[in-house]
Design goal:
With 320 residues, the chain is an alpha+beta fold. It contains six helices and 14 strands. Strands 4, 5, 6, 7, 8, 9, 10, 11, 12, 13 and 14 form an eleven-stranded mixed beta sheet that branches. Strands 1-3-2 form a three-stranded antiparallel beta sheet. Strand 11 and strand 12 form a beta hairpin. The radius of gyration is 22 Å and the shape is globular.
Length: 320
Amino acid sequence: MSKPALPTINGVSASCVALPDGNWPTMLDYLAQRIPAVSREDWADRMGKGEVVDAHGHPISVDTPYRAHTKLYYWRSLPFEHQVPFEEEVVFQDDYLVVAYKPHFLPVTPKGRYLQETLLVRLKRKLGIDTLVPMHRIDRETAGLVAFTIQPHTRNAYQALFRDKVVNKTYEAIAPLSKAVALPMVYRSRLAESERFMAMHEVAGTPNAETRIELIESAGDWGRFKLQPITGQKHQLRAHMSALGMPLLNDQIYPELLPALPPEVAPDFSRPLQLLAQSLSFMDPITAQQRDFHCGRSLDLTSALRQSDQSSPTDQPGEA
């Protein structure tokens, strides 16, 4: 059975949970046991508000008997989120695409402790387009362009552009200079998941990650770089720059993973990762037009170093 036509609530689309074999007396009993991050009282409250429905879109009550091999739909909510004090901006919009500038610290899509403070939900609230789906993603810490599809029937054609690696992407980054690295260059290596949480590392084998690196300007021991990922491995730009002894300014993962902040502590919004997804270009598979998008922003080398208390590259391990 297909998903029922469900509305978004405050920019949030319905989530689905499939019901396995089991002996739970009621739907409430199942949800309270299997999704304990939401309290039983909260589930009951949501049911009372009609915010838990079956596969036909009919509301579920606290007394509804459990039925295996069916589905439930509900709308996520969080009791608290840190507000990201930077605004997104719509760079382009037509019948098929929305291209938006994402500020630092804002995730692209809801996950874990991020829901309302995500680019997708903010855009759904702002534009009133329930069918928005990202064509790709960039890290929460990274600022820059993210493209979204609007029409479900054209979604796969657009997302295939990224799968087939036919999108040209340009980034800017600020990092320490290294006398051991001759620029411009094309850097290739094989990246794989490391034992460190979230981090990638280089391993032996056929390269699966390729990045063009060019120095745009320098100030003392620091530089502003143009980065062009030819491939799209996780954390590719951050991992490559770190491997070259030039870890990005304010990177919390490379070269060393810093301790994660507890949920109740807000990030230091004055020290964003100095990485900007500046431009996207591709041939539109639907309109056959060349698409060239630019975020209209650039990293400020002097300002970044001043805001970082004149950080010295020698303070960052991993320099060659």
